[in-house]
Amino acid sequence: MTEPRYPGERLGLPESGRGSIGRIGRRVGALFVDYGAAYILAGLFVTDPDGLPAVFSGDPVVIAALFVAIQVVFAPMLQGSPGHRIFGLRLARADGAWVGLWRPIVRALLLVLVIPAVIWDSDQRGLHDKAAGTILLRG
């Protein structure tokens, strides 16, 4: 078998433009937006036992939980998180169908673990996307 010329070729996706694989720059930008939103929400609505906002106490569990909630709530409704949509990405199943409800949960939990997200295949799909059967496409 020959090596694919570009990410997504094996999946029958175009090399660039709408429907092509979402590249790393857009993915990282979306991640920063979503974690930033979780960080802000933690500061606004969650306080630690001393009465300080969770952001100041540095509670990573609260911030990670809010990040997962953002992913799980928005992915089925908007075909991606707010960060994905801002950066022109959309989340889809590998076969093109609706992602459903359980895939965003699996994907987000693995994404928070970090390691599955930084191990990619030749199509630039992280292990979190492979496990959930999802793919990030340009939108």
Explain this structure to me?
- With 139 residues, the chain is mainly α.
- The protein has one domain (16-138).
- 51% of the residues lie in helices and 7% in strands.
- It is built from seven helices and two strands; from the N terminus they run H-H-H-H-E-H-H-H-E.
- It has helices at 24-45, 54-57, 60-78, 82-86, 102-112, 115-118, 127-132, and strands at residues 89-93, 134-138.
- It has a two-stranded antiparallel sheet.
- Helix 1 (24-45) packs across helix 3 (60-78) and helix 3 (60-78) runs antiparallel to helix 5.
- The longest helix has 22 residues, at 24-45.
- It is elongated and about 60 Å long.
- The chain starts with 23 loop residues before the first helix and ends with a strand.
- The model has no long low-confidence stretch (mean pLDDT 89).
Keywords:
139 residues, mainly alpha, two-stranded antiparallel sheet, 7 helices, 2 strands, 51% helix
Quick overview of this protein structure:
Strands 1-2 form a two-stranded antiparallel ribbon. The protein contains seven helices and two strands.
How is the topology of this model organized?
Blueprint: H1 24-45, H2 54-57, H3 60-78, H4 82-86, E1 89-93, H5 102-112, H6 115-118, H7 127-132, E2 134-138
Antiparallel strand pairs: 1-2
Helix pairs in contact: 1-3, 3-5
Separate helix tally: 7
* Average pLDDT reading: 89
Overall shape: it is elongated
How many domains? The number is: 1
